[in-house]
Design a protein that fits this description.
By secondary structure, this protein is mainly β. The protein contains no helices and nine strands. The protein has a single domain, classed as Domain of unknown function (DUF427) (Metal Binding Protein, Guanine Nucleotide Exchange Factor, Chain A), CATH 2.170.150. InterPro entries: DUF427 (IPR007361), DUF427_sf (IPR038694).
């Protein structure tokens, strides 16, 4: 069964065999997060016309902080209910892979 994984350096942020893919982004379910303490809420908010308002986390791994590396929809519109509270990672900031 394929496994999706989000990592920074050698730290696994999230890992799952069940995820949602929307617009080419893998959305990890909340249960796949390995250490919630690595995720720090930020003030950033963006808007998608069909998904709704996204909120963001920065990721802190050791001495490294990656600002606004993760987004999620706490209250998505009906068309995006399948990704409610799922986390997506900017692939230019976090290594996201799918392995067989």
């Amino acid at each position: 069964m394929p496994t999706a994984k989000a990592t920074i350096d050698n730290t696994v942020l999230a890992e799952t065999t069940h995820w949602e893919t929307v617009e080419g982004n893998i959305y990890f379910p909340p249960s796949s997060i390995k250490d919630p303490s690595l995720f720090v809420p930020t003030e950033l908010s963006t808007f998608c016309p069909w998904k709704g308002h996204a909120s963001y986390y920065s990721v802190v791994v050791g001495e490294k902080t990656i600002p606004n590396a993760v987004w999620y929809y706490a209250e998505p519109y009906e068309a995006a209910l399948n990704i409610k509270d799922h986390l997506a990672f900017y692939t230019n900031k976090v290594n996201v892979t799918v392995e067989e």
